[in-house]
UniProtKB/TrEMBL annotation:
The keyword Cell membrane does not apply. The keyword Membrane does not apply. Keywords: DNA-binding, Repressor, Transcription, Transcription regulation. Gene3D superfamilies: 1.10.1660.10. This is DNA-binding transcriptional MerR regulator. InterPro entries: DNA-bd_dom_put_sf, MerR-type_HTH_dom, MerR_fam. SMART domains: HTH_MERR (SM00422). GO terms for molecular function: DNA binding; DNA-binding transcription factor activity. Residues 13-83 form the HTH merR-type domain. It comes from the Bacteria. PROSITE patterns: HTH_MERR_2. It comes from Parvibacter caecicola.
Length: 302
């Protein structure tokens, strides 16, 4: 930054660059403020094209920048600068608080989903046997929706009917999340669920779906499922269906159940299938995933 005396031009004016420097802004930001009618130069030199500001405009520029940092739009800032009644200003600030809280919730869930994606890659601490991993997981809480009337039967091969049923199930979950007032980003990782009773019979009927939600954003207790800390067995795949159209999920569940049986583990919770759909699952191979994960909570024998 230049020395203070160098900011003063003739008639007490400072250039756009000097104004930007002293206010911690960019020249582009000042041009935008000008275009939106929030802060106009005091003088425009037609010969050079230079625009000049006055030192007395610095507090206004600073206030605009501070309001932007609080999340106000330039349109809202314009209203505040023009002057509002106390009640109107309080309403505007209260609305902004609600928006900030919603964004905070979205970012918190996004962080959790990003961490879960990294965990899906596995680590050297995992015990890997025949493609199945055994890992300790902390307590987790999920929002659950019953798929009444649209239960999805996992098939060993891709069918358009099954794909559309799953899309409908996802739509129900998104609607439920919206009704609960939770951030839409939680729907990025919708998990299919198969009950322990159905797993015991190798009946792969999905009657519920769920999404993980941070504790501070949980809705009413009746909408949630808590899975206590403990071991899970899991496997992963890169695609929902392999190149021959066979279901990777069904094969993965079968592998998990065989592993559980061979090691005499007890199933202590519902199966969950977690993945990110990248392409439409009504295609010939049923869509691709960054990573598809199948897991079943288990209790080890004494």
């Amino acid at each position: 930054m230049e020395k203070l005396e160098s900011y003063l031009e003739k008639d007490g004016r400072i250039t756009t660059g000097q104004m930007a420097d002293i206010c911690g802004l960019t020249k582009r930001a000042l041009r935008l403020y000008h275009e939106k009618g929030l802060l106009s130069p005091v003088f425009h030199d037609e010969d050079t094209g230079y625009r000049y500001y006055s030192l007395c405009q610095i507090p206004r520029a600073d206030r605009i920048a501070r309001l932007q940092n609080l999340g106000f739009t330039l349109s809202e800032i314009g209203e505040l600068l023009l002057g509002m009644s106390l009640n109107s200003e309080r309403e505007l600030y209260a609305r902004k608080v609600s928006e900030v809280r919603a964004e905070k919730a979205r970012l918190s869930v996004a962080e959790q989903l990003l961490r879960e994606h990294l965990e899906m890659e596995g680590s050297s601490e995992d015990l890997v046997v025949s493609g199945v991993s055994l890992k300790w997981k902390p307590e987790r809480t999920f929002v659950v929706v019953n798929l009444e009337g649209c239960e999805v039967q996992l098939a060993s091969e891709h069918t358009e009917e099954g794909a559309l049923a799953w899309y409908y199930a996802m739509a129900l979950m998104r609607e439920h999340i919206q009704q609960l007032g939770l951030p839409a980003v939680v729907c990025n990782h919708i998990s299919t669920m198969i009950s322990p009773e159905n797993l015991a019979q190798r009946n792969f009927s999905v009657d519920r779906a769920c999404v993980a939600v941070p504790q501070q954003y949980l809705p009413l207790e009746e909408d949630t499922l808590v899975i206590p800390e403990g071991f899970v067995v899991y496997a992963t795949a890169l695609t929902f269906f392999d190149n021959s159209g066979k279901s990777s999920e069904v094969a993965g569940i079968e592998e998990l159940l065989d592993y559980i049986s061979a090691h005499k583990f007890a199933i202590r919770g519902s199966y969950m299938g977690i993945g990110d759909v990248d392409e439409e699952i009504t295609g010939s191979l049923g869509g691709t995933f960054d990573r598809l994960r199948f897991e079943i909570p288990v209790a080890l024998p004494n």
